[in-house]
């Protein structure tokens, strides 16, 4: 069962500045869509490597300070 506690624990590495530990939970063949009509990263990505190298790494390489993430809301629906 997916619980709020499970989701928070899984996303905790992102809040702590450790994206590799978070991405260890992500399937290699993830299907990921970035939305937006004017977003240069908008599109569909078919792997964990693609989303990391083609979007996230390019974004973080341009930033003066690391991204700070915070989980604020978690919705679960049991065994979905």
What would the keywords be for this entry?
single chain; 80 residues; mainly alpha; 3 helices; 2 strands; globular
Description:
- The chain is mainly α and 80 residues long.
- It has one domain (4-61).
- The chain contains three helices and two strands.
- The chain has helices at 4-15, 19-23, 48-61, and strands at residues 32-34, 43-45.
- It has a two-stranded antiparallel ribbon.
- The longest helix has 14 residues, at 48-61.
- It is globular and about 35 Å long.
Task: Present the secondary structure layout.
Layout: H1 4-15, H2 19-23, E1 32-34, E2 43-45, H3 48-61
Share of helical residues:
25-40%
How many helices?
Answer: 3
Instruction: State the domain count.
Output: 1
Number of strands: 2
Q: Approximately what portion of the residues adopt beta-strand conformation?
A: 5-15%
- Sheet with the most strands: spatial strand order: 1-2
Question: What is the approximate shape?
Answer: globular
Please report the distance between the alpha carbons of the first and last residues: 8 Å
Mean pLDDT over the full residue set: 89
Order of helices and strands: HHEEH
Radius of gyration: 14 Å
Low-confidence stretches: none
What does the largest sheet look like? 2 strands, antiparallel
| Helix/strand/pairing category | mainly alpha
